[in-house]
Write a structure and sequence with these properties.
Blueprint lengths: L4 H18 L3 E5 L2 E6 L2 H9 L8 E4 L18
Antiparallel strand pairs: 1-2, 1-3
């Protein structure tokens, strides 16, 4: 399984309830557990590093819609 796939899947599957509880917060997810909610990604990261090794947790900004977990990049390059 890809690194942090479990955490990502948890967020996607529970996004609606997480939005109700943590709207506009940055949450730390490890496994299938939310281990903190913060006002900034920096706060979330600093707290998570006191408990876990980097790369073993995910920080997610909680907002509604798939835009919260996907990125679109535009390019002027023609294929």
């Amino acid at each position: 399984m890809a690194a942090l796939q479990e955490e990502f899947d948890y967020y996607v599957e529970h996004q609606a309830e997480l939005v109700e509880r943590y709207l506009n917060k940055f949450i730390v997810i490890r496994g299938q557990v939310v281990d903190g909610a913060f006002d900034s990604a920096v706060e979330a990261y600093k707290d998570a590093l006191t408990k876990y090794e980097a790369g073993t947790f995910m920080i997610q900004h909680v907002t509604p819609g798939k835009e919260s977990y996907s990125q679109t990049y535009f390019s002027n390059v023609a294929i």
